[in-house]
Design goal:
The protein is an all-alpha fold. The chain contains 14 helices and no strands. The protein is globular, with a radius of gyration of 26 Å.
Length: 320
């Protein structure tokens, strides 16, 4: 006889879940609220803006230029003060002029997207064959290789940063932008491949081997079995691994700050946000709007992948 929870227990569980959700979602709500507020509304503790401000989003997406936005009346009155020098007026006006050349959001967004997608795709491709060999094949030293791959993931990025950069400098990759991007791509693959192998390997083991045996009796080779049987049955985990690799590369800052520090046009989104925060464009609505737009790829990945993230696709595929 199963023990059922009482009504007070259900209420406590619901309250606990709501508290955890509020704790996790509050920072994102605060970011969204600040990005939609006008400058005069920043001191308002309410999460609901008095008047919605979309100018920062339009500017970052290239819909409207900053010159088209109006200077606040308080700033205009300040500029009419005869005691303010022309240099000081010019310095104040510079804050409200176009900053697309200082913070080209779309360019940084595209840089991060291409780099993250490439790293996630290559890592997933390599992980499929590596995980299949770990889960299905029996060869000498298999366990040593499998545990050695996971050991790489245990080493922190800070420890590997200096030696990896020195290697890149000595072989000449760090001298050019394409060499730096190639080095960064290799690093992202190395960072994501160990856990990708581990996750896919465990999932491949859950697929009944008898399905492959039946396919082999019909004349399927090992490679055909991977493409016709393993991959279709592993779509949920393949999507999960790709999203995992993409998010790691998308949010990575440490290695990008080292390899791309002298190539400003090829900054990734984390580097761009950091440069925006310390520049003359450090206006809160613009910073928070850029942060919200940075979340879009991750949200879209989960939205379009939700229909694939269901387990048990191999259930009923063969009668044991």
């Amino acid at each position: 006889m199963t023990n059922r929870r009482t009504i007070p227990q259900n209420l406590l569980l619901a309250l606990a879940i709501c508290a955890v959700l509020l704790f996790c979602l509050f920072p994102f709500v605060q970011i969204l609220s600040t990005s939609l507020k006008h400058q005069i509304d920043w001191g308002n503790p309410s999460l609901i803006p008095i008047k919605v401000n979309l100018e920062a989003y339009k500017e970052l997406l290239g819909i409207v230029k900053k010159e088209e936005t109006q200077i606040p009346e308080t700033i205009k009155r300040l500029l009419d003060n005869p005691l303010i020098t022309e240099e000081k007026k010019e310095e104040i006006l510079e804050t409200y002029r176009s900053t697309s050349d200082v913070f080209p959001f779309l360019r940084y967004f595209l840089n991060s997207f291409l780099l993250s997608t490439s790293a996630a795709s290559i890592s997933l491709f390599l992980a499929v064959f590596g995980a299949y060999s770990f889960s299905r094949l029996r060869f000498k030293g298999r366990k040593i290789v499998q545990r050695g791959v996971l050991f790489v993931y245990m080493v922190g990025g800070v420890l590997l940063m200096v030696p990896l950069y020195q290697i890149s400098v000595k072989i000449g990759l760090a001298k050019s932008i394409w060499g730096s991007l190639l080095s960064l791509l290799f690093i992202y693959i190395i960072q994501t491949l160990p856990v990708s192998l581990y996750m896919l390997g465990n999932y491949f083991r859950s697929i009944p081997y008898s399905i492959e045996e039946a396919a082999a009796m019909d004349g399927c080779s090992r490679l055909e079995a991977i493409y016709l049987i393993i991959l279709p049955l592993s779509v949920p985990m393949l999507m999960t691994v790709f999203i995992y690799c993409f998010i790691i590369a998308w949010n990575e800052y440490l290695f990008a700050s080292v390899f791309l520090r002298q190539f400003h046009d090829f900054y990734t989104i984390p580097l761009g946000l950091q440069s925006l925060f310390v520049s003359k464009n450090a206006i809160w609505d613009r910073i928070m709007s850029a942060s919200m737009l940075t979340l879009l790829p991750v949200i879209l990945c989960f939205t379009f992948a939700m229909r694939h993230l269901t387990g048990g696709l191999s259930e009923g595929g063969v009668k044991e």
